[in-house]
Design a protein that fits this description.
Layout: H1 2-25, H2 29-52, H3 58-68, E1 73-77, E2 80-83, H4 84-100, E3 109-113, H5 118-129, E4 133-136, H6 143-153, E5 157-160, H7 172-177, E6 181-184, E7 195-196, H8 198-203, E8 222-228, E9 236-241, H9 242-249, H10 251-254, E10 262-265, H11 272-285, E11 288-291, H12 300-306, E12 311-315, H13 316-323, E13 338-342, H14 346-356, E14 360-365, E15 374-375, E16 385-386, H15 389-394, E17 397-400, E18 402-403, E19 408-409, E20 426-431, H16 445-450, E21 452-454, E22 462-472, E23 477-483, E24 487-490, E25 493-496, H17 497-504, E26 510-518, E27 527-534, H18 542-552, E28 561-564, H19 579-584, E29 595-599, E30 604-607, H20 610-617
Parallel strand pairs: 1-11, 3-4, 3-5, 4-8, 5-6, 6-7, 10-11, 10-12, 12-13, 13-14, 27-28
Antiparallel strand pairs: 1-2, 8-9, 14-15, 16-23, 17-20, 18-19, 20-22, 21-22, 22-23, 24-25, 26-27, 28-29, 29-30
Helix pairs in contact: 4-5, 9-11, 13-14
């Protein structure tokens, strides 16, 4: 008896010691394990699709809900409620029009240029029902880039929103010459070459088209093309397969969302965050979506209270705008419990939770075309993701040393990359494998190959180059530090410096341009700045440059600051030197070169004075 009690006491002491040790040394063990098991369960379902060659797509999931919960609100927009059945039937009408009037066939690609509205979803689903892939076009891009997008994905038709038809001015002739049909979401078209769609939809049947049209046997079948800016300049069409769509659709569910949640989406649907995670995630849950045409900081919390919103999607800039609103007694009066997004700065994160309540902010890291995703399921402030022993078993990634001055990875004597130490900043690379494939970009194998690094650690390996500098601490939390190469982020959009350089280079007085991003106090991301060498015999003309930038560049890509230089510095590999320019910023008291700032009131680039600089730093001058 005494012996038994001794063993029992020892067992209890051992278990207690193990619990204490786990809490001290591995405080996130169980939360990590349960989260990963949940994700793995979803992964097993995807693997079964591969084995059975019977893929259950996001659209199939939507159609399930349309039968199971037909009267449940799916989309609430501008005060109007659209049920799952409503969207299903309207997308059926569109699918019938696409087959009978537009003469689309399974496998065709169709471009979609629309703002956030329920018909964006109806057109998208209608095209998917007839087996077409859909290319989401950024509503901000201009004529040259817009034409380039069509060439990338090989679209046979364009569906354009009623409020965006004027965006086609100047390129409509080129589209027609390429035999691209243009259909507007109108009952009557003012353009003879543009067909009206709504009158055909009203007369069409709402009966479903044959299911065989949408059926697919492979997860690798492309379903969408989402355009992303990158180091090559013009937008690139990232190939989105059913595999990527299904993975993204599990995001909300993985963070603990349920069918009872009401999700608020104000981000543009042409981006993967809103379409793949926002719409796809709502469909995976069978939840309700509150859709907004554009984000409004003044209406945000009123909308949340009106519709009992529980989850919202964000980018860091969105949260900063909310924090800048005048404080009210209703700041914590709402049902929002979770935010899902990326790019949230630590100071804004703390201020947001302090002011609006203990809302769990779930950061997600991953590019549209990338093969790696981090999720900060713990909610630690400042981290974009979480890694651990379990995660590394499934996903192979590395942080490698990067030379900021030379703008290239550091190599050892054998030509291989070198891993950084814990806590040290490095370039994030993700290994390409059967589990984590990289599908690349449409239209060019060269573009796809440029995003890959080969022979990184051993001969023959291949890694996806994220272009992001990250750091991983001793607890496994991953933090974003900076971007490298020719891309920066401003106003929630990626800006390709080479595209801006090409467009500015068309101005007659500019001989050479070097575009980069600079940090601005109190703002997310980096603002565009261009170092310019004026052509001999010419003078800098702020008004001409302003007119050119406004005409040919979307607002987020226009350089806010100009720096005139006599000589453009180069790296040892003859690339334009950006690092020193980025470090110098735009402070006129510390930079000897003439500086200019974009001024919309004067419609010109005007001299950047110390007074204007102080106003910008104090957030009094609107950028």
């Amino acid at each position: 008896m005494t012996l038994s009690l001794g063993w029992l006491s020892a067992l209890v002491a051992g278990v207690f010691s193990a619990i204490v040790l786990q809490k001290l040394c591995f405080p996130y063990f169980w939360r990590d394990l349960f989260f990963l098991l949940k994700v793995m369960r979803y992964g097993v379902k995807l693997e079964l699709f591969k084995l059975t060659s019977s893929v259950h797509t996001v659209l199939d999931r939507f159609l399930q809900h349309a039968q199971r919960i037909p009267d449940k609100p799916f989309v609430i927009y501008d005060g109007n409620v659209h049920t799952y059945l409503d969207i299903d039937k309207r997308s059926n009408r569109l699918a019938n029009v696409f087959l009978e009037k537009v003469n689309l066939r399974k496998g065709d690609c169709v471009a979609l240029l629309m703002n956030n509205e329920p018909d964006f979803l109806c057109v998208w689903f209608g095209l998917a029902k007839v087996g077409c892939s859909v290319a989401f076009l950024n509503t901000n891009i201009k004529s040259k880039s817009l034409l380039h997008c069509f060439n990338c994905c090989g679209a046979k038709a364009l569906i354009v929103g009623s409020d965006l038809v004027e965006c086609l001015d100047g390129i409509l002739t080129s589209l027609l010459e390429d035999n691209i049909q243009v259909w507007a979401m109108k009952s009557k078209s003012e353009h003879r070459e543009v067909y009206s769609l709504l009158d055909k939809v009203d007369a069409a049947s709402d009966q479903p088209v044959p299911a065989a049209l949408r059926a697919t046997t492979s997860l690798k079948t492309p379903t969408l093309y989402i355009f992303t800016s990158g180091t090559t300049g013009l937008p690139k069409a990232a190939v989105i397969t059913h595999l990527q769509s299904l993975k993204a659709a599990a995001g909300f569910w993985a963070f603990g969302a349920t069918e009872d949640d009401v999700i608020y989406v104000t981000l543009p649907l042409y981006h993967s965050a809103a379409s793949l995670i926002g719409i796809g995630g709502t469909i995976e849950l069978g939840a309700t979506l509150v859709l907004k045409k554009k984000f409004s900081a003044s209406q945000f919390w009123n909308d949340c209270r009106k519709h009992d919103v529980t989850i919202f999607q964000y980018i860091g800039e969105l949260c900063r705008y909310l924090c800048n609103q005048t404080k009210t007694e209703l700041d914590k009066v709402h049902k929002v419990r979770m935010g899902v997004g990326n790019g949230l700065r630590q100071d804004v994160w703390r201020e947001f939770q302090s002011r609006f309540g203990n809302i769990k902010m779930c950061e997600v890291y991953g590019s549209t075309e990338g093969n790696l995703c981090f999720m900060n399921h713990i909610g630690k402030i400042g981290a974009v993701g979480r890694s651990n022993f379990f995660y590394r078993l499934l996903f192979k990634y590395d942080l490698v040393k990067y030379d900021m001055v030379k703008d290239e990875p550091v190599k050892d004597q054998y030509g291989f990359c070198q891993q950084v130490e814990k806590g040290e900043m490095g370039l994030l690379l993700s290994k390409v494998s059967a589990i984590n494939p990289f599908f690349g970009y449409a239209g060019s194998k060269q573009l796809t190959e440029k995003k890959l690094m080969r022979n990184v650690f051993v001969k023959g390996d291949a890694y996806f180059n994220t272009g992001d500098l990250m750091a991983e601490d001793c607890e496994g939390f991953i933090c974003f530090r900076d971007r490298v190469g020719d891309t920066f982020r401003w106003k929630g959009e990626n800006v390709a410096t080479t595209e801006v350089t090409e467009i500015l280079g068309l101005v007659d007085f500019i001989q050479e341009v070097n575009v980069y991003g600079v940090e601005v106090p109190g703002h997310e991301g980096r603002a565009g700045m261009a170092a310019i060498i004026v052509r001999p015999g010419f003078m800098f003309d702020g008004k001409k440059l302003f007119e050119h930038a406004v005409k040919d560049l979307p607002a987020y890509a226009r350089p806010l600051f100009i720096r005139l230089q006599e000589v453009m510095e180069m790296t040892t590999t003859f690339k334009q030197q950006k690092f020193q320019l980025v470090q110098s910023g735009f402070n006129p008291s510390k930079i000897p070169d003439p500086l200019y700032v974009l001024d919309y009131q004067q419609k010109s680039y005007i001299p950047l004075t110390d007074l204007i600089y102080q106003s910008i730093s104090a957030r009094e001058h609107k950028l």
